[in-house]
Amino acid sequence: MSLDVSIVDAFTDEPFAGNPAGVCVLPGPVSARWMSMVARELNLSETAFLYPEGNGYRLRWFTPVVEIELCGHATLAAAHVLWESGHLAPETRAVFTTLSGELTAVRDGGWIQLDFPAKPVTAAEAPAGLKEALQGRALVAVAANGSDYLVEVESEDVVRTLEPDFAAIERLPLRGVIVTAWAVAQPYDFVSRFFAPGFGAAEDHVTGFAHCFLGPYWQRKLGKSILVGYQASQRGGYVRVVAGGERVLLGGQAVTVLKGSLLADPGPS
User: Fold this and answer.
1) What is the DSSP letter of 26?
2) What is the DSSP letter of 138?
3) Per-residue pLDDT tens listing for the chain (269 residues)
4) Other CB atoms within 10 Å distance of the CB of residue 99
5) Nearest to 264 by CA among 20, 68, 40, 7
């Protein structure tokens, strides 16, 4: 049995930038163990697996280490593949059933717009050791939503030049940490980086999920509901964010860089 698999660079309009995601469109359910092994084989930060269900698709995301509940760039990549491969007509909305509820994607010119749950943060104490793991940099503000932390630092330059201690972050009682600052100049409003070494991504390249936190945070601080964020990883990428209420709209572009055939039989689900 042969299955189509793609690698898509998300949140970019050029190859070898943004965040790469694997995408595997399946005819039906397969075992979580098999998906986990495929994700480990591809060794990307996330691989998306989807198959037809009801009026849309069941969508699951796996890192090389664990299954996760929400992923922005791999969802954008999955929608891109559905339209590019002809599984969906260009004008048809992509509807996904996921561990985070129903998510949708629509085409907006050359962009894709995702409808995701907002993740507002509240002020929190920094876990012991977090400041030290971030090179002892001054923490302007610390906020959290569950086990995910958002840290505002004093400048865009700090975000860009930060060299975190990943081993120290992995020992902390958190899932991931977003480091962010107000952007000095247009065309973006804020910059960020995202670290989650305990979940197979020491530093994620461009994280749609993180912008579910960043959108409400910077909307409140800047008084703007339409924002553009730049994730300042080595590859880098832009995310358009419309924040308001219980949802955020995340906009990005995508480029397919590889198409192939997966020859490992998934067997029974």
Assistant:
1) -
2) -
3) 789 999 999 999 999 999 999 999 999 999 999 999 999 999 999 999 999 999 999 999 999 999 999 999 999 999 999 999 999 999 999 999 999 999 999 999 899 999 999 999 999 999 999 999 999 999 999 999 999 999 999 999 999 999 999 999 999 999 999 999 999 988 999 999 999 998 877 999 999 999 999 999 999 999 999 999 999 999 999 999 999 899 999 999 999 999 999 998 887 77
4) 11
5) 40
Domain boundaries 122-245, corresponding CATH code: 3.10.310.10
**Pairing label, strands 139-145, 148-153:** antiparallel
For the chain, the domains span 3-112+252-262, 122-245
- Is there a shared CATH topology between the 3-112+252-262 domain and the 122-245 domain? yes
Residue 182, token pair as written in the block = 């107000």
In whole angstroms, what is the distance from residue 60 CA to residue 38 CA?
13
Q: Are 121 and 213 contacting, i.e. CB atoms less than 8 angstroms apart?
A: yes
For 108, the token pair is 């907006």
* Residue 171 to residue 145: CA distance in whole angstroms: 19
**pTM to 2 decimals?**
0.93
Q: Which long-range contacts (CB under 8 A, 24 or more apart) does 143-146 make?
A: 143/217, 144/174, 145/119, 145/120, 145/121, 145/213, 146/175
List, by residue number, the catalytic residues. 46
Cis before 187? omega within 30 = yes
Per the structure block, which two tokens stand in for 192?
């960020």
CATH superfamily assigned to domain 3-112+252-262: Diaminopimelate Epimerase; Chain A, domain 1 (3.10.310.10)
